[in-house]
């Protein structure tokens, strides 16, 4: 066997491991990246911090300024709302509250973007002012509401009294009256709690019930249907007989019965006044007839005149007085005393000759002289006419067809009534014999002067009333004029300008109307009586 | 006392100076780190060269042992009267060549790998050094920048408040 040839002995090498790398560069880059990141973060934080701080500072300053502006604006808005409440443009509290809330929300929302703290302060401030305004408005509107209910209650009471009277007349039984009274009281009690004076309102209705009963009963017993005279009526009532209203009468207490008697008395007086007026009117018509009878000697004519006189609704006493006056005149003389004629003629010319004087001397004068003197006696109608015009002037009537130049209908009515009363009184006086003798022209004129003076006094009151009415109208239209001296041009103008500035175009129109009223007021106080100092007696 | 206080530099100035000193320190630290990385790179290169040399020495051993084996084959063939360059001796010698060649080339690759790995690692260290140096600069710049902003903020005066047009919530003023 062949020996084994030497072989190369392999050392069993394997490839060396891949050397492990230390990636220091990546580690350093990572560290660098972190460093840069940290640096940038630090710088940005710094920058952002500064910016934020600056922004906070600016916001704070902005918010303070804004709040001041908003508070001023809110004050203006609230003042405007108050003016609207005062002038009655806002009558609904809900509308007012919504306006205040909207104002507060709008402003606090805007301010809240800058500073919650300032917004809260602003909300608190507006809220406080708003609550105060709401309180004032609530009080005002509640008062107005209650005042309106006062009027409503008064109207309701009047209506219920009228209705109650009708109901009592329809059913005068005790039960019917009780039911109608209860219904009326119940209606008013429903309104009373909303008035300013609840208890007084209910009491007014109670009084109204008494009034209704009293009026119905009084009206009945004052009528001829119940009794022909007041005396008879009283006698029946004292016997508890009130006819168909006996049950109502029986249900009345002494006070209510007293009220009925009072009403009966007033009704009787009223009736007497009417009758007296009728007599006065008859006397006025009688006077010219009497005068004609004094001078008329034609028997047929005299009879005609006497018939006319007797047909007038004169009282028997008055008719007798006239007849005595005519009969007592005597007959005419055939021969007269010239001295007497001269004296009487002079007196007639001087206007001092009275009817009584002339009639007293009738038997000493011829018919011609007597008639001449009667004509010269003058007609008191001239005086009445003359003073009628003076009365017109005194009350401001320029022409009989025109109303007096007075500012209010009430004043005009008052003036016309005063004028008419004065005229009627003068006419009655001139044509009414006193103790059978007609007043002389002198006496008529004296009476006319007296009436003219009285009329002046009445008109002074009318002017005073007109001034008060004008002042009230002025103050309602322009509240700024309250307490202002309306005769002071500068003060008045200032107040009107203030009103116009506040109210705009509508206020300008009001201002024109108010200026007219102020002219009226000044004219009225110029004519109205003024309290005189040192005249106290 | 007030005079002493007045004579002292302000706090802002002190803060600024300290920031500058700190920034300089950061730059120095970056540079030092770069030098350290450079040294590490050189050390790595030396180490890799040493390893490559070791591999070369071992590859020389492989060649020497192959030569010994082949010489023994030739000697024994000659001694046996066999042509050492043909027949079995030649086959055995060829096998020896193959085995030794495999180990030789492997060791040469290892040496090459050690060299290249070392150079790569050294380059990585140098890159890290440069990066560390730049990081130092960044840190310094950041410190200086922050100091400048702080200084500016603490020394700036309050600007006057100008009137502003505030928006109106109701649209009018």
Brief sketch in words of this structure:
Chain A has helices at 24-86, 93-112, 116-170, 174-191, 198-221, 230-238, 246-250, 254-295, 299-311, 316-327, 338-350, 355-360, 367-376, 380-395, 409-431, 441-477, 489-527. Chain A is mainly α and 537 residues long.
- Poorly predicted tracts of residues of chain A: 531-537
Model regions low in confidence, pLDDT < 50 over at least 5 residues of chain B? 157-173
Largest interface: A-B, 48 and 63 residues
What does the radius of gyration of chain A come to? 51 Å
Count every beta strand of chain A, where a strand is a DSSP E run of 2 or more residues: 0
Distance between the termini of chain A: 189 Å
Tally the helices of chain A: 17
Largest sheet of chain A: none
Would you tell me the structural class of the helices and strands of chain A? mainly alpha
Number of strands of chain B: 0
SS summary, helix count of chain B:
3
Element pattern of chain B in H and E: HHH
What's the gyration radius of chain B in Å? Answer: 38 Å
Helix-strand pattern of chain A: HHHHHHHHHHHHHHHHH
Anisotropy-based shape of chain A: elongated
Query: Averaged pLDDT of chain B, please?
Result: 83
Overall helicity of chain B: over 70%
Average pLDDT across residues of chain A?
80
Oligomeric organization of the protein chains: heterodimer
> Helical amount among residues of chain A, as a percent range?
over 70%
Described by the principal axes of the CA atoms, the overall outline of chain B is: rod-shaped
Provide a descriptive summary of the structure in words.
The complex is a heterodimer of chains A (537) and B (173). Chain A is mainly alpha-helical. Among the domains of chain A are: 36-145; 156-277, no CATH class. Chain A is 75% helix and 0% strand. Chain A is built from 17 helices and no strands. In chain A, helix 16 packs antiparallel against helix 17 (489-527). The longest helix of chain A has 63 residues, at 24-86. Chain A starts with 23 loop residues before the first helix and ends in a 10-residue tail after the last helix. Chain B has a domain at 26-143. By secondary structure, chain B is mainly alpha-helical. In chain B, helix 2 runs antiparallel to helix 3. Chain B has helices at residues 2-7, 11-80, 87-155. The interface between A and B is large, with 48 and 63 residues.
């Amino acid at each position: 066997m062949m020996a084994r040839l030497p072989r190369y002995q392999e050392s069993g090498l394997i490839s060396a491991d891949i050397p492990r790398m230390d990636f220091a560069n990546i580690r350093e880059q990572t560290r660098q990246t972190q460093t840069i990141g940290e640096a940038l973060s630090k710088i940005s934080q710094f920058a952002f911090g500064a910016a934020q701080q600056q922004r906070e500072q600016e916001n704070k300053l902005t918010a303070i300024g804004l709040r001041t502006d908003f508070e001023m604006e809110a004050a203006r808005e609230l003042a405007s709302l108050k003016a609207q409440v005062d002038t009655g443009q806002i009558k609904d509290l809900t509308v007012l509250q919504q306006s205040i809330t909207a104002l507060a929300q709008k402003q606090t929302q805007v301010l809240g973007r800058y500073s919650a703290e300032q917004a809260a302060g602003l909300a608190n401030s507006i809220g406080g002012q708003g609550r105060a305004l709401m309180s004032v408005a609530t009080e005002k509107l509640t008062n107005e509401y209650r005042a309106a209910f006062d009027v409503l209650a008064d109207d309701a009471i009047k209506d219920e009294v009228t209705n109650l009277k009708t109901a009592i007349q329809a059913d005068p039984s005790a039960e019917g009256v009780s039911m109608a009274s209860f219904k009326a009281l119940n209606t008013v009690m429903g309104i009373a709690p909303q008035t300013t004076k609840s208890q007084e309102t209910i009491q007014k209705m109670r009084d109204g019930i008494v009034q209704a009963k009293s009026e119905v009963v009084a009206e009945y017993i004052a009528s001829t249907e119940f009794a022909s005279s007041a005396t008879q009526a009283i006698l029946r009532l004292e016997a508890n007989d009130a006819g168909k209203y006996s049950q109502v009468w029986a249900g009345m207490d002494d006070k209510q019965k007293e009220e009925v008697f009072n009403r009966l008395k007033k009704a009787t007086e009223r009736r007497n006044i009417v009758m007296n007026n009728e007599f006065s009117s008859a006397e006025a018509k009688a006077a010219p007839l009497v005068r004609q009878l004094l001078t008329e000697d034609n028997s047929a004519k005299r009879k005609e005149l006497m018939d006319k006189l007797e047909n007038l609704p004169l009282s028997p006493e008055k008719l007798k007085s006239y007849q005595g006056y005519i009969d007592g005149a005597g007959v005419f003389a055939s021969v007269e005393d010239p001295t007497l004629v001269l004296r009487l003629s002079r007196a007639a010319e001087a206007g001092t000759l009275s009817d009584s004087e002339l009639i007293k001397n009738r038997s000493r004068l011829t018919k011609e002289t007597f008639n001449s003197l009667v004509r010269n006696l003058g007609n008191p109608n001239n005086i009445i006419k003359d003073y009628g015009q003076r009365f017109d002037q005194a009350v401001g009537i320029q022409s009989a067809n025109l109303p007096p130049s007075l500012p209010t209908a009430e004043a005009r009515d008052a003036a016309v009534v005063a004028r008419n009363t004065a005229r009627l009184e003068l006419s009655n006086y001139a044509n009414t014999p006193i103790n059978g003798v007609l007043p002389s022209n002198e006496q008529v004129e004296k009476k006319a002067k007296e009436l003219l003076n009285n009329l002046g006094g009445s008109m002074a009151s009318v002017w005073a009333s007109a001034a008060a009415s004008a002042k009230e109208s002025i103050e309602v239209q322009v509240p700024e004029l309250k307490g202002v001296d309306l005769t002071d041009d500068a003060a008045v103008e200032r107040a009107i300008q203030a009103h116009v500035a506040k109210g705009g175009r509508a206020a300008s129109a009001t201002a024109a109307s108010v200026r007219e009223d102020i002219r009226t007021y000044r004219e009225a106080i110029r004519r109205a009586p003024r309290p005189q100092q040192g005249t106290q007696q | 006392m007030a005079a002493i206080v007045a004579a002292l530099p302000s706090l802002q100035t002190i803060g600024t100076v300290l920031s500058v000193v700190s920034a300089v320190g950061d730059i120095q630290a970056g540079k030092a780190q770069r030098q350290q990385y450079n040294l590490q790179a050189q050390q790595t290169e030396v180490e890799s060269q040493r390893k490559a040399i070791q591999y070369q020495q071992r590859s020389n051993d492989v060649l020497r042992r192959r030569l010994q084996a082949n010489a023994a084959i030739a000697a024994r063939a000659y001694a046996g009267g066999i042509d050492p360059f043909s027949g079995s001796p030649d086959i055995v010698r060829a096998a020896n060549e193959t085995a030794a060649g495999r180990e030789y080339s492997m060791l040469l690759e290892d040496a090459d790998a050690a060299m290249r790995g070392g150079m790569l690692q050294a380059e990585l260290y140098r890159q890290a050094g440069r990066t560390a140096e730049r990081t130092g600069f960044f840190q310094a710049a950041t410190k200086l920048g922050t100091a400048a902003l702080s200084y500016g903020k603490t020394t700036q005066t309050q600007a006057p408040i100008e009137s502003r047009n505030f928006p109106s919530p109701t649209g009018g003023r």
